[in-house]
Input
Amino acid sequence: MQSVPLADLIRPQTLDEVVGQRHLLSNGRVLRNIIDSGNIPNMIFYGPSGIGKTTVASIIARQTNKRLYKLNGTSASVGDIKDIVSSLDGFDSQNGVLLYLDEIQYLNKKQQQSLLEYIENGKITLIASTTENPHFYVYNAVLSRSTVFEFKPVTPDDVKEAVIRGYKKASEALNIKIEASDEVVSYIAQHCGGDVRKAINCVELSSLSSPVNSDGKSEISLEIVKQLSQRSSMKYDRDGDEHYDILSAFQKSIRGSDENAALHYLARLLTAGDLLSPCRRLLVIASEDVGLAYPQAVSIVKSCVDSALQLGLPEARLPLAQAAILLATAPKSNSVICAIDEAMADVNAGHATEVPSHLRDSHYAGSEKLNHGIGYKYAHNYENHYVKQQYFPDKLKDRVYYSFGDNKNEQTAKKYWQEIKKK
Output
């Protein structure tokens, strides 16, 4: 067992033995039908690590008559790819080559381009895997010639199957009777974060580290499993999809006024030690999603963020939780972001024409000769501090960017200005 990792000993040999991924591998599903047909196209397997991408690729390789090559994007070079290409005319490659390329996101554009000719003419069938969104990290020409299948984290119930099978294989490999209670199996399944490989590593290490009694039995204790599983359920990468997915869910939960879900995603960010991301996102939400419905939210959230940054973790969780709950339970308005985005769209479209002469700076000698500032009406000199005059450039004089939100605060402002401007 020590020379061959347990994960390799119990790796499924058939698709039916793969735990999870029912949406891809159940009978009648597209990927299952493709594999069973034997006509394998170029494919990209996308999803977190440890959930079966390599296992499924290995099963596909065994079911095809193509010669199998394996490369890892972290270490592969153009030279490695050229070596594969040079073998295409060999006797054992007459049926073509199946290239399993793990972590394709680490290959640069030139390396990925070197595959194009051969995956297009069918001499190389590419099965690539990636933990990052392929639409961001895989070269478009490769992506357009491949079918993307998303692998999802495995549920605890499915992981249990792998854990039970793992302890059985460990017993056989160590030639001892290993006993793991339902509590132990469930704990591992719950705390691996949907990563089967992590679960199996825990099985292997707990099997090796648990004492064997005089009867040749080894009972796996929950305490040992807890030590081996510490923080293993946290799947988080500050530069990867998981980071942005959690931040997106955090903001959308607040926007949707679900304070409990917002606290859940905040907890995930903070548990991973990420303090700055939720601080920045809370400041954005205060203006983007609450805005003028509760304009005081900006200053309150800013105070909470300042407190969090001064305190640091773990105490920072308190003001940030306060800010998240405040924003989630506050009235909502997106009138601010809608208004500024429409205004910027006009500017980006080239509508930033000349400022009207009466609005131009006149605080310098000679401005009158240029007609700058002439005819400007100082609003504070008029009743209610308002006077009608044109502020827009001529081309945009009838544009309306801001629409009052339907909340009490903005409707009050709307009513006030309607009455003033009618006069």
Observations:
- The longest helix spans residues 156-174.
